[in-house]
Amino acid sequence: MTLTPFHLAFPVDDLETTRRFYCDVLGCKPGRSSGTWTDFSLFGHQMSAHLRTGGSAGSSGAVDGKDVPIPHFGVVLPMDDWKKLAARLEAAEGIDWLHRPMIRFAGDPGEQATLFIRDPSGNALEFKGFASLDAVFAS
Prior knowledge:
2 helices, 2,3-Dihydroxybiphenyl 1,2-Dioxygenase, domain 1, alpha+beta, about 15% helix, 4-stranded mixed beta sheet, globular
């Protein structure tokens, strides 16, 4: 099966701050935009940031002994790409870290590198790295 890009629309507080974060910090390619939304490519996936019209509540869940924010979104990457992104984020100023780069499920099926950050509007993002993408759904 060939994976196709997913689409995600998510709320933000400020479009220009969002564009700078996703394009300048994460390296996303900008797409179409209007006065109330902006699109960009997050590792080939279509992301649509929409100005928030109301608050959003979140919670957390436990994964491998760590609290992770719910909801969150992100991308699964080959390990070399994940390492480059992790290094880029660690070198950047002002990153809102929830969990710095770490290995989760070490030695188990599905072992992965992961990190969690928040964007300037408070949306939680997780980026995962796998030595082999065949292990993404390993149990």
